[in-house]
Each structure stands twice: as C-alpha cells, then as structure tokens.
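SAMPLE LOG
Freezer: B-3
Tube label: C17
Construct: single chain, 338 aa
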Amino acid sequence: MAGFAFSRRSGAVALAVGLALLAGCAGGYPQASRHEGPNRSDNPPAAARAGTRVAALEFLYSFENESTAPYFPITGIAGCEYAPDGTLMFCDQKRGKVHALDAMRQTWYEFDTPVASPYTPLDVKVDGFKALVLDPGGAKIYRFDLGGTQLDVLLDLDQADPGFPVRATAFDVDQDGRMIITDQGRQQVLLLDSFLNLTMRLGDPGSLRDQFQDPMGLLFRVDGSFLVSDQGNRRLDLYGRLGFFEDSYGGVFEAENPFVAPAGLDRDRFGNVFVADPGNGRIHILDPDLKLRFSAGQEFSLQGAPLTPVDVAVGPGDLLAVTDVARVAVLVYRIVYQ
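STRUCTURE (predicted):
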C-alpha cells in the first residue's frame, strides 16, 4: 500500500477509503498463484512443500507370466510406459510384442507387429497421442496410435548418425519434440532436434566426466535437461538443455553410492526421479535436486519385492509400474507423498 496518496477530502471519504483498503488486505484481493514446478527459483524446492515429497511406495498388484494371462508367454520383458489415460504398456523384446492394458475396459490388447524382421521392441514412450517404440533389431523407432495401430517409421536409426550404426538401448522425447538416444556401440548419447536431425554426440568410452560405460536409460526433465543412467560407471550423468555435461551422481568410487547397475528412469509431475536398479533389485527415489530420498526393494512382501527391475513408469493416480526380468512380471505400486 506504500505510495497510495489520500487527497484532502472530508473525513467521511477518508474513512470509506481506509475501510476499503482494510477489506483488501483482509483477503479481498486474490493472492498470487504458486507455481508447482521444481525449477522456479522464487519458490522453495518442490520436495520441501507438503504433498510433493515421496515418502514411500505401497505395493498394489502385479501382472505375472501365467498361462491364463492374455499376454502369456512373456519371454523377454523390457521397457514400460503409461499413457495419460492410464493405459499401461510393456515390451516383450524376444517375442516381438508390445502389450497394453486398456485403463477403462481393463482388457489387454497387442500393438501391430511391423513387417520388418527381426522386430525386437525394447522401449516405449508416449508422445502426445502417439506411442513410440524403439526396435534395435530393425534399427527403427516406430510410431503407433494409442490403440496399437502402426502408423509409420518415425526414425531410421541408421540415418540418425550416417556412417555409424546406432546400437540403441533407450530413448526419450521432450515436450518440444527433441529426442535423445543411447548408442551403446560407441558409448555415447545422441541429441536430436525437433526435426530429428542430429545436434550433438555426447560422451565417449571411459569412466571420466562426460564418458560412458553402457548407457542404459534416459530421461528428459521438465526444464529440458536430461539424465543418463551410466550402468558400467554406476552413476547418473546430468546434461543441460543444450547438451553440455553438468554433473554426476553416484560413481564407482563414491562410498555411499546407492547405484549398482542403474537402468530405466522416469519422473513424476513434481520432478522426483525413479531409478530401476537390476544390480541390487531396488528402486531408487531421488528428489528434484537429485538427492536420494530412499531405496525400496526386498523389504516388500514376497509378492511385491522386485528382483531384477529394468524399467519404471509413472502413471496417473500416483501409480508406478516396474518391469522385472527375473520375475517376468509387471509390478505396480502406489507412490505415497507427504
């Protein structure tokens, strides 16, 4: 209210203005809205606000590899993903199948199988109203509608980096359409622009900064920066939006390193990061500042304990799906916030 000037009017007018101002201070004026994203510098970190910190995981149910299941047999379970409507998808790399559970009807269906052979779907992502499937066997990323109908080939990996065959293990797409792809053959990550043209090659073989030994998972964050799970070096590597190395978390020589063999990654709407670690059968939960909140694994009941989790997917309703190679199952948990 500083700077508000009263004119020389009657005492009655002055009193009316004063009462109006008091009413405004008491709640008559709307308060500024609070942005809930983790990257606003004018707000406290998201993990510090009530309702955004991950406090626990609660096991709900699992989809096991049973002969009566419509997706039976699963022979090579791999990546998983949730669509915005809650439809759950997972890849069976060895059988060349992508299975999906319709969230409304609670019925399973299969995606179309491309004519190309071999077809070995390894990872799946949802981009808007399309599902993208990584096929390292055919060196393609296929595009499907969410009902599983094949639409086209979004990207030929042999053309992503001409002259250098790409041995992809994971990919991700951000809200601007940019894409990142691991290339385990050359121990690097490819950054593509929204037109899917190669922008940068990141990293090379080794254990130093900005080097990889078996990059296995990728994740774009809200601000456009991204994480790489560097399995051989037992760490996560952080790159800025423009593709420049920023920091590492964990590492072989870190005494309290929780990672043994980090693989699949995902995040929730608050920026918390979930990491599948098949090396020690655990799911690691990091806050938006990439500090470890806790790890979950064998303390679950026998039915809910992961053995070799390879990928994670955060879905609507605070659900977390985990694909487990050893159990040949999809485990579903509820994320508990405080």
